[in-house]
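Slide 14.
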Amino acid sequence: MSSLGSASRASRMEKCTRLLCSAWVRRLWTYQEAILSKNGSYCDKLELQFADGPVHFQSLLRSPKSLCHSEKALQSLLLALPLTGDEAFRLSTLARALKYRTTNRQEDEAICLSSVLGLDMAKVTQLQRLEDRMVAFYSQINSVPRNLIFRNMPRLDIDGYGWAPLSLLQQSAEIATRSVAATRDANGMYVTGVKVLRFQSMSPPNWPYQHFILTVASREYSKPASWRLTIAGTRSGTTEGEWRRIVAEWNAFDEMVVSIGTRGAVLLNDMGEYCTVVEVLRQNMDTRYCKFITLAEVTACGDITDHIGKQGMISVEAIEAQSGARWCVG
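Slide 15: predicted structure.
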């Protein structure tokens, strides 16, 4: 990495800053280099090639309590080496580490991820398509962060893997490292401990892109007894073309919800802004097997009189988090 310049006359902080501004911290495969060089608590084997010679990565981190921004950033980089903890924790740490990294060959991502986590790379390399390789990667992980299903990111459109990110690279949505772990198999991710609003009856919106009002069918249910169901993410445009695209997205969301009808349900997220709309395909004992449909926002609302006749109305059954129900999202 000759772009780092000369090390002989640079201070330790200057070296840290150069490294943080280099391409090394933005490439996928250099993250694997750091992983393979890790021995114990520090990257004892990792050396960085400056123009006039190598510099040990560890030599840049002399003060763990430093207030210097560059050194603190390198400490964070060091902590993003997922070699400890359970599978779900390692995967969430890996996702955080790849937030700003890229690769010129997207189909190589699953190979690198499998190598970093010590998985069977042969199961990945025998496939060619990006989507198939990512499935082969996820299929070797039995526990994943539950909040993956609530994060706004591109997903695999493959049965059993609708919960799974298409890529972990350059994703703005944070995956909390302390997220509740969820088991998974070929059917999907098994989610428990969440409140669910299951559709009972539906009337579509009478006006375009008006979205939906959810109301609890039982009169015994405590407040809030009604919610507004809308597309995930704030939409705004400055040109006619942008507004046409936004309105098309709103209409597409409404059409998706109408298409699943009374097979629909909303998994509520008590830790973030987005919830998950699923289609319930079948039920076996206490487990409902579902297909991931889309993300949505669910906000409590009071008097719904003004919404009647415009927005779609959905009567729902509220299934509490303590009910023991399992939702397999695939």
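Speaker note: The two ends are 43 Å apart (CA to CA).
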